[in-house]
Known about the structure:
Helix 2 (12-24) runs parallel beside helix 3, helix 6 packs across helix 10 and helix 8 packs across helix 10 (217-234). The protein has helices at residues 5-8, 12-24, 43-51, 64-73, 108-117, 136-146, 167-174, 196-204, 209-212, 217-234; strands spanning 33-37, 56-61, 78-81, 93-99, 119-130, 180-193, 242-255. The model has no long low-confidence stretch (mean pLDDT 95). By secondary structure, it is an alpha/beta fold.
Amino acid sequence: MSWSAEQYVIFEDERTRPVRDLLSALPAIGARSVIDLGCGPGNSTEVLAARFPSAAVRGLDSSADMIATARRRLPRVQFAIGGIEEWNDTGPFDVILANAVLHWVPEHATLMSALVGRLAAGGGLAVQMPDNLDVPAHQLMREIAADGPWATTLAAASASRTLLGSASWYYELLRPLCSRVDVWRTTFYHPLSGGAAAIVEWFKGSGLRPFLEPLDAASRAAYLERYTAALARAYPTLSDGSVLLPFPRLFMVAIR
Length: 256
């Protein structure tokens, strides 16, 4: 699946707020080496660098377009193209940030343990993942994919996302490996101007990608027409002309 940095940053302020909350929960760490896994266009890396101004900062992302944008934004940061599954740098790192990326990566039991293993003593793993597969916007993606001429083509689209465990599952996984684990869930309510079309633009930069990319142009337009109409029914326009998009996210900070 290809990523578009231009599409993703349409809602940069809203997408950056969770990483600010996440990094503010880290304790004081005299960090010398930090990395942003799934750094995207560099907005999260920028927050990481500000949080640890004395550290050498690195970023990794599988998208060449995202990395090119991040390099223009932060020319002094070392960015590399690569997937988290193949990432083999043993570190150790004082902080590993994974903001809004691990829900695209499978096998969380193995993955989380491996990430903790790359932390220095006293280092922190900071993770935030969208926990929104049950909200109407995602339910409608799947329902429309299954109910149309594209059903066979999109049969595997839902499997692109990894199903998250519960907060207690992640706590039980990380606690034996760490001196401290904090897990919390926050629902952000984003007011978006433009009605249902604005919600479509939001998810074009993330959750809609596996549903749209396999389709030809005509099918993509037809799918989006149905999806937009369904969103308009599920997310009514408010008195100021905006819609309110609830967006639940799961956070965790684990200190080795």
